[in-house]
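Help needed: design a sequence for this.
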């Protein structure tokens, strides 16, 4: 029996490669899923601390060393859905850091299984999430 918690957000290898490029240029990063209710919506990538999160945001976890947040009202719709951050060619309409690279991050999603929902990773208020310790 596995004790590993079900992750609420994942990342593809292609998105990891883009995160590496952005991290080299901008330092530590963070994501915020703002708006968008379905598969294909765009998470925003910022330099860590550039987007202020608070009690109206939910921390879903870390992807490739980056904190991932979403608004609490949006989480109410997405709480039964596992999100995967991917990247595709094209220009997004946002202030996200990847835009000058000619790519955009996007969300792919699927519903959790009943078994996965029984072992979910916790979410935290945007002001109370567990801070990463830098080595």
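Sure. Designed sequence:
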């Amino acid at each position: 029996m596995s004790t590993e918690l079900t992750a609420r957000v994942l990342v593809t290898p292609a998105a990891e490669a883009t995160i590496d490029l952005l991290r080299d240029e901008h330092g530590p990063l963070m994501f915020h899923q703002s708006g968008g209710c379905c598969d294909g919506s765009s998470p925003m990538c910022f330099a860590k601390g550039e987007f202020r999160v608070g009690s109206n945001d939910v921390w879903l976890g870390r992807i490739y060393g980056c904190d991932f947040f979403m608004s609490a009202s949006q989480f109410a719709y997405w709480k039964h859905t596992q999100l995967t951050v991917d990247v595709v060619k094209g220009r997004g309409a946002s202030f996200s850091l990847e835009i000058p690279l000619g790519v955009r991050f996007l969300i792919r999603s699927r519903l959790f299984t009943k078994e996965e929902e029984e072992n979910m990773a916790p979410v935290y208020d945007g002001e109370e999430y567990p801070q990463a310790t830098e080595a």
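The mean pLDDT is 90.
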